[in-house]
């Protein structure tokens, strides 16, 4: 029961932006449908990790898979919604590099049964850069995108920027933190996930049906 917040309430809360997205038929939007896929994927993987962990089975291989798919989906989202050829070219170059980094991480740097701190950190850094560029470009554009884009970008930026140190130190924290401190860290991280879901849900609400 002590893990119910980070292990159940927060993962299941993804159903709120998912429900809003489907109610408003945003799956027909070429950009927001990627975010919907990401939210569904995140919720399914989070619940699967919880169920596997309850059986005392190492669930970290799922995290390696999740990191790869999460990064690819968010990179594709920014590439789709941001009509800047240089920006899109940079993402096109980074995607195969990121795939290689992910495989190198669990093949040579960390076991697949350890946290993939390098791949998670590098993915987060690039996502933060994408978010900042997107915010700036939208602010100075003569034809700025609608407000829903800013809300969703804010959610992505908040979560990944706040989690950078957490991602980098995952293996150290998991191995050396007292159980109560580790649970607190997990709950803080879960709160940033919840904040991202709330901001994405707000963005979906601002998007015209």
TrEMBL record:
Keywords assigned? Membrane, Transmembrane, Transmembrane helix
Question: What is this protein called in UniProt?
Answer: YhhN-like protein
Task: Report the superkingdom from the record.
Answer: Bacteria
Transmembrane segment boundaries: 6-23, 30-48, 60-78, 90-112, 118-137, 149-167, 187-206
Query: Which positions are tagged coiled coil?
Result: none
